[in-house]
């Protein structure tokens, strides 16, 4: 019986020990959980931070980068047979050498494209979900079809669409070495400054080069390997300067001309057509002079979607019975293209008529000037 007196004390002691052990276990679990949570937070925070770091910060930390090219034939590196001599291939090589990083390239490019067509292609393209850097390269083709204000409108549209999709990406705008029209170059510079993009005027290094233009280009327009080396070196220098100055990415500021996002509308339904046009595989096709098709549309601008190819002919375009321009549909390869027609039309209803001229490009070696239209394009 005497030993029973101590039983409650023993049980209490054991309970105390057990409670002490439980408290220790709980404390240990809390400590482990706290450490794990802290590590997870640090890793997540660093990962999130790396996603929003500027391209300059990523390069400084030797992080690999993704970049996108939106541009015309110079954007795609036309002018060299050996693709290792394009401006982007030479630039990538120098970036790897200078900063020990890898670069992944994405492209939305089309030879002969204007900023108008570039806007269409960018909005339709399956671009990557994120990117660190975007190159914008237009101007030389635009000056053939529109004035500088019209060009600036679509160029700004591209800047805003790019920065809306990629708010953290840096933007490098390039004035092409072949662009002789200062009014177009000035628009590129003004918009670049407004959005705090990294602007490179490639006319300057070409003018300062010891080599004449004939030795820097394949055709006095498209650079050759030596000309593209000037592009690569200029971009490398602009990146180095951005690193040195702690430059941040371009910003989406208040618009100058492009005051609202444009939506692309395509119309295939005509209201008049003569029997010289035939319908096949979604195209209105003609080989003879006088083939005519008319579409109604509502808007202030117009483009036309055609199939350009080796047998392409020429079309005269009339809007509201007034001649606007002549379009060639010749191209060395089969390619669907969205060609700029006009801007600055009065708001409201219009009609556009396309008439085959029966003539062909000097490059067309076939017997017939073939026309293939699929739709008209309006930005609303």
From TrEMBL:
Pfam families, A to Z: Lipase_GDSL_2
Species, as recorded: Niallia endozanthoxylica
Transmembrane feature ranges: 26-44
Annotated GO MF terms: hydrolase activity
Record keywords: Hydrolase, Membrane, Transmembrane, Transmembrane helix
SUPFAM superfamilies tied to this protein: SGNH hydrolase (SSF52266)
Span of domain SGNH hydrolase-type esterase: 70-230
Alphabetical list of Gene3D superfamilies matching this protein: Galactose-binding domain-like, SGNH hydrolase
The name this protein goes by in its record: SGNH/GDSL hydrolase family protein
Domain of life: Bacteria
Nucleotide-binding in keyword set: no
């Amino acid at each position: 019986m005497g030993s029973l007196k101590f039983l409650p004390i023993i049980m209490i002691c054991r309970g105390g020990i057990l409670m002490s052990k439980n408290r220790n276990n709980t404390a240990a679990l809390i400590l482990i959980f706290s450490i794990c949570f802290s590590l997870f937070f640090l890793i997540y925070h660093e990962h999130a931070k790396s996603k929003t770091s500027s391209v300059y910060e990523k390069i400084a930390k030797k992080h690999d980068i993704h970049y996108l090219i939106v541009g015309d034939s110079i954007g795609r590196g036309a002018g060299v047979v050996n693709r290792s001599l394009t401006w982007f291939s030479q630039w990538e090589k120098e970036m790897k050498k200078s900063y020990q990083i890898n670069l992944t390239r994405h492209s939305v490019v089309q030879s002969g494209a204007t900023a108008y067509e570039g806007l269409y292609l960018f909005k339709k393209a399956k671009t990557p979900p994120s990117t660190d850097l975007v190159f914008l390269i237009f101007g030389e083709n635009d000056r053939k079809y529109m004035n500088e204000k019209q060009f600036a409108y679509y160029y700004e549209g591209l800047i805003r669409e790019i920065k809306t999709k990629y708010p953290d990406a840096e933007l490098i705008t390039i004035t092409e070495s072949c662009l002789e029209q200062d009014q177009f170059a000035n628009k590129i510079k003004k918009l670049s400054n407004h959005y705090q993009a990294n602007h490179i005027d490639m006319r300057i290094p070409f003018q300062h080069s010891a080599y004449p233009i004939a030795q820097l280009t394949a055709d006095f327009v498209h650079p050759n390997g030596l000309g593209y080396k000037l592009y690569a070196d200029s971009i490398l220098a602009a990146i180095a300067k951005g690193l040195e100055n702690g430059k941040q990415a371009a910003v989406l500021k208040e618009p100058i001309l492009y005051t609202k996002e444009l939506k692309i509308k395509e119309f295939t339904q005509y209201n008049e057509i003569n029997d010289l046009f035939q319908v096949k595989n979604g195209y209105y096709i003609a080989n003879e002079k006088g083939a005519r098709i008319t579409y109604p549309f509502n808007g202030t601008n117009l483009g036309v979607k055609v199939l350009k190819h080796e047998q392409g002919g020429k079309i005269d375009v009339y809007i509201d019975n007034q001649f606007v321009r002549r379009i060639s549909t010749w191209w060395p390869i089969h390619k669907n293209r969205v060609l700029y027609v006009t801007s600055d039309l009065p708001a409201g209803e219009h009609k556009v008529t396309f008439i085959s001229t029966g003539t062909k490009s000097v490059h067309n070696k076939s017997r017939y000037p073939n026309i293939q239209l699929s739709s008209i394009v309006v930005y609303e």
